[in-house]
UniProtKB/TrEMBL annotation:
UniProt feature, compositional bias: Acidic residues: 618-633, 690-699
Polar residues bias spans: 508-537, 584-601
Matching NCBIfam families: mre11
Positions of the UniProt region annotated as Disordered: 503-720
Compositional bias annotation for Basic residues: 567-579, 650-664
Keywords on record: Chromosome, DNA damage, DNA repair, DNA-binding, Endonuclease, Exonuclease, Hydrolase, Manganese, Meiosis, Metal-binding, Nuclease, Nucleus
Organism per entry: Arabidopsis suecica
Protein name: Double-strand break repair protein
Length: 720
């Protein structure tokens, strides 16, 4: 290349998915990701590129370890900080391009000598999180080692709105507009592309001697590309036609040669990962990086193989197609698999590029064992310790799918994305199983799972449940027919409320994670127990809350609860193992959200009145009314909910059966008495006083309830 051509040609080295820190606790493979990244930086120096472009997932984890951060900073310092001049300039508004405290490209900082600029977006592994929305790449950006771009602020209403501002670069007569789009959840970005004006692309302004068409437009993104689920991937046809070249990250299969998209006019390159993170067929292909040379509106790609990558051999075997294997003889299966493994090890040693440092190869055999017995993969791999890098998972067994070959091919292509194996979303699981969600919306559960796994949000699921409980409770309270509800209609009504809430939510200007706005903190969680936060209600609040639902039941329940409380008024501090604040804490269940909450104080009071006989227990476990207020038939019908709740609680405490309940509780009381006798004489006095109080309570309860019929238990009415 002549000197004139060199001054007008922008040279870029493109790589994606370095996954620094992958398998850092494995003694054999812990250095693989760092050696590959070191080789990429060395190639950039050797080829004298203008800058290094990374397409996301520089780190394997959202919160990389200190070892990983230190090694990454050391590699970047060795190769990026030098006295070499930078031949191009950034002519766009840098405060918009680089959203950090400094607001300019790193090589323009007078305190640093940056000879190799590095531009990077974030991926789904190292995406921003937390209150300040920071990524691990922000640490490298603050160290002035990496130019972090493509971080989007999701503004607007509904699915959100983003604006992509390009980094405008100029070298001689060549002008390049570099667009960056960091990873966004595929479902959300898919909807944004199909929503008018949700994704806005900013074009360079027309200047003297430089038209809009003179810019070479490059896009770097990190999203799903394989169309296993149309809503869970980004189609190439969503992208604007003015783009010239696209660097597609996130897909680990190396398709480095640019491919033209029919009817769109741009080319796509998929460099793939530089380290194998999943032992599948797509990862076994040779790894490359791309040298991109741009002059004017033309470019020239050159693929460069990576030699420091650990060898990986993959094959598939169908046992029934092998003639020398006896289905009933396990030794014949072992001999055949041993032969296959030895051949793969020899093949890996012959194909080794770097003879000076031969590494232990990765070997994976997918075995179709239809009609055969399986063997233990760990035991099989013990004989290859020191010969392969993954002796514990050489074999993976599978059965031939009953579906057609076409569907099997789709499944194979879907497995080319190793991240999706561990990050299946709830929406896809529900769709595959043909399930119908009746309580919680699928989108809310999906967001909660994403925040719990990727954002380390410990309260994600609790916030989701509390938000939806409050929303359902509010819908039911507003219903004019709430008084007519019967227990069989409650679940149907909850399902109708779910559909109404989904319709309201689709038109409401809130984000996808709106249930996180409940204001729950760890401080609030510590004030209660058993998951009870400040969303619980006291007994008085229960009275007002339940007045709108089933007033007949409320009146009877109030009379019974009041009677029991008066019986226990002599010993208010005695909690029966529930603590002093037992009256303020209740189980927040589906029944409680629908107006059937019952305080633990009334439950323990009903339990304390049941020590004499099984028949008395059958009467007192339910909040019994007086005989003058309601007929026995109505009592059976309307209080079955309370019985179900009591029987469920009894099951949770592992109480004995109904016929033995009196004897079981009596034995429990005597056991407590024996423990108290062994402790001190004072405790014996207190326990005897408690027993006297219990007998008084039982006498009062028996007098009040002696005319009540025994209620037949109807367990499972609401668990249908």
């Amino acid at each position: 290349m002549s000197r004139e051509d060199f001054s007008d040609t922008l040279r870029v080295l493109v790589a994606t998915d370095c996954h620094l820190g992958y398998m850092e606790k494995d003694e054999i493979r812990r250095h693989d990701s760092f050696k590959a990244f070191e080789e990429i930086c060395s190639i950039a120096e050797e080829k004298q590129v203008d800058f290094l472009l990374l397409g996301g997932d520089l780190f394997h984890e959202n919160k990389p370890s200190r070892t990983t951060l230190v090694k990454a900073i050391e590699i970047l310092r060795r190769h990026c900080l030098n006295d070499k001049p930078v031949q191009f300039q950034v002519v766009s508004d840098q405060t918009v391009n680089f959203q950090n405290a400094f607001g300019h490209v790193n090589y323009e900082d007078p305190h640093f000598n940056v000879g190799l600029p590095v531009f990077s977006i974030h991926g789904n592994h190292d995406d921003p999180a937390g209150v300040d929305n920071l990524s691990a790449i922000d640490i490298l950006s603050a160290c002035n080692l990496v130019n972090y771009f493509g971080k989007m602020v999701l503004g607007g209403s509904g699915v959100g709105q983003i604006s992509l501002y390009p980094i405008l670069m100029k070298k001689g007569s060549t002008t390049v507009a570099l667009y960056g789009l960091g990873n966004i959840r595929d479902e959300r970005l898919n909807r944004m592309f199909q929503t008018p004006h949700a994704v806005q692309w900013m074009r360079p302004e027309v200047q003297e001697g430089c038209d809009v068409s003179d810019w070479f437009n490059i896009l770097v993104l990190h999203q799903n590309r394989v169309k296993s689920n149309p809503k869970n991937a980004i189609s190439e046809h969503f992208l604007p036609r003015f783009l010239d070249f696209i660097v597609w990250g996130h897909e680990h299969e190396c398709l480095i040669d640019p491919q033209e998209v029919s009817g769109m006019g741009f080319h796509i390159t998929q460099p793939g990962s530089s380290v194998a993170t999943s032992l599948i067929d797509g990862e076994s292909k040779p790894k490359h990086v791309l040298l991109l040379e741009i002059k004017g509106n033309q470019y020239r790609p050159t693929k460069i193989p990576l030699t420091s990558v650990r060898p990986f051999e993959y094959t598939e075997i169908v046992l029934k197609d092998e003639g020398d294997i006896d289905p009933n003889d396990q030794n014949s299966i072992l001999e055949h698999l041993d032969k296959v493994v030895r051949n793969l090890i020899e093949k890996a040693s012959k194909n080794a590029v770097n003879r000076s440092e031969i590494k232990l190869p990765l070997v994976r055999i997918k075995v179709d064992y239809s009609g055969f017995m399986t063997i233990n993969p760990q035991r099989f791999g013990q004989k290859y310790v020191g010969k392969v890098a993954n002796p514990q998972d050489i074999l993976i067994f599978s059965k031939a799918s009953k579906k057609g070959r076409s569907e099997a091919n789709i499944d194979d292509s879907e497995r080319l994305r190793p991240e999706e194996l561990n990050q299946q979303n709830i929406e896809a699981l529900v769709a595959e199983s043909n399930l119908k969600m009746e309580i919680l919306p699928v989108n809310d559960l999906d967001v909660a799972l994403h925040n719990f796994v990727n954002k380390d949000d410990k309260l994600a699921f609790y916030s989701c449940v509390q938000y939806n409980l409050q929303e359902t409770r509010g819908k039911l309270a507003k219903d004019s027919d709430a008084k007519k509800f019967e227990e069989d209609d409650l679940i149907l009504k909850v399902g109708e409320c779910l559909e109404e809430r989904l319709k309201d939510r689709s038109t409401r200007p809130t984000g996808s994670s709106q249930f996180l706005s409940t204001g729950l903190t760890s401080e609030n969680l510590t004030k209660g127990s058993s998951g009870i936060a400040n969303t619980s209600f006291s007994d008085d609040e229960d009275t007002t809350q339940m007045s709108g639902l089933m007033p007949a039941t409320r009146g009877r329940r109030g009379s019974s609860t009041g009677t029991t409380t008066r019986g226990r008024a002599k010993a208010p501090t005695r909690g029966r193992g529930r603590g002093k604040a037992s009256s303020a804490m209740k189980q927040t269940t589906l029944d409680s959200s629908l107006g059937f909450r019952q305080s633990q104080r009334s439950a323990s009071a009903a339990a304390s009145a049941s020590f004499k006989s099984a028949s008395t227990i059958g009467e007192d476990d339910v909040d019994s009314p007086s005989s003058e207020e309601v007929e026995p038939e109505d009592f059976n019908k309307l209080d079955s909910t309370s019985e179900d709740e009591e029987s469920t609680k009894g099951k949770g405490r592992k109480r004995p059966a109904t016929t033995k309940r009196g004897r079981g509780r009596g034995s429990g009381t005597s056991k407590r008495g024996r423990k108290n006798e062994s402790s001190s004489s004072l405790n014996r006095l207190l326990s005897s006083k408690d027993d006297d109080d219990d007998e008084d309570d039982e006498d009062r309860e028996k007098k009040l309830n002696k005319s009540q019929p025994r209620v037949t238990r109807n367990y499972g009415a609401l668990r249908r």
